[in-house]
Design brief:
single chain, mainly alpha, 6 helices, about 60% helix, about 0% strand, globular, disordered N terminus
Length: about 140
Amino acid sequence: MLLTIVCCLALLASSLAPAAAQDVEGLDGVRAAYHDMLDLFYRPVAPADLLQAGWTTLRAAAPRRGAAAPGPLPDLPDDPDAAFQTFAGAYTSYVASLPPSFTPTMVAAAIETGMADSVHEQHTHYLPPSIMQRF
């Protein structure tokens, strides 16, 4: 019985993520859009191209919102998960210093817009939550 309780407590403790490991605001949406584009788009899309397109759009959008544009992305690996991990590090660093006029949600929307627009396909667009709620 004691062994069962100890095992249950160990499983419970391992399932609780520390606060530092939790996702930065907006990053979950970017991750979902990224993986959807990689997995569901009708033709193959290079992971680095998607992330670079999103970052380029962010670099243009930030000054319009009173924020400094982020620096360039580091080189992204070819592996989709490794590329996103590298991207996530740059994203996390950038959103840590945002002014109130440019929220992490706005950063994520700019990145998702850039990724969707980068495929130059008339039916692929980012829809903000206010529009998605209508569906």
